Amino acid sequence: MANINLLPWRETRRQARRQQFLVGLCGTALIAVTSVWLWDAVVSSQIDYQEMRNQKLTTQIKLLDQEVAEIRDLQLKRSRLIDRMRVIQALQGNRPVIVRLLDQLVRTVPEGVFYTSLETDAQVISIEGIAESNNRVSSLMRRLEASHWMQDPSLDAVQATPGDGTQATHFILSVGIELPEEAVERPL
User: Fold this and answer.
1) Phi, psi of 164 (to 5 degrees)
2) What is the rounded distance in angstroms from the CA atom of residue 188 to the CA atom of residue 177?
3) pTM score > 0.70 for this model?
4) What integer pLDDT is reported at residue 164 of this predicted model?
């Protein structure tokens, strides 16, 4: 005999397809949600990693800023020390110069001339004194001009002083200081 299926096979088939569709839809939705969740987790971990790197860089930048500040302080201290050393060296270098200047002043004094006062102002020496005659004053000026340590003597005043002698004169002159090259100290 022939087998006749009286069951509504189209309805069964429709339900089977509907069920397959729903299973596929649920599977796709599950895969989509899982994919979005995984993508979010990956992006969140990358963001956290980048924030950690940024924090590390910020910390390192702060440390470097502190080191730069320390270096600036050290450079400032160094420049101050160098300035002090230059001042000390200049003072040490000028000590023999004063002695040599006084020695030159003594060597240039001709006979019959006496100094009563000496004053220095920067690079100029003001000399007051008494000379037996005007010729002695001019001789003093020639000797000062010939000295390697002095330059441009200029006579400021000459007055006769009869109380000291018949031709005695009181004089005031100024002379510039010129250091020979061997006396000039080299800077650092």
Assistant:
1) -95, -15
2) 23
3) no
4) 63
Closest of 107, 170, 102 to residue 137, by C-alpha: 170
For 49-188, the fitting CATH number among 3.30.470.20, 3.40.50.300, 3.40.50.2020, 3.30.1360.100 is 3.30.1360.100
Residue 188: is its pLDDT beyond 90? no
What is the arithmetic mean of pLDDT over 29-58? 97
The full set of domain ranges for the chain reads 49-188
Token pair for residue 97? 């110069």
> DSSP letters along the chain, please?
------S-HHHHHHHHHHHHHHHHHHHHHHHHHHHHHHHHHHHHHHHHHHHHHHHHHHHHHHHHHHHHHHHHHHHHHHHHHHHHHHHHHHHHHHHHHHHHHHHHHHHHPPTTEEEEEEEEETTEEEEEEEESSHHHHHHHHHHHHH-SSEEEEEEEEEEE-TTT-SS-EEEEEEEEE---GGGSPPP-
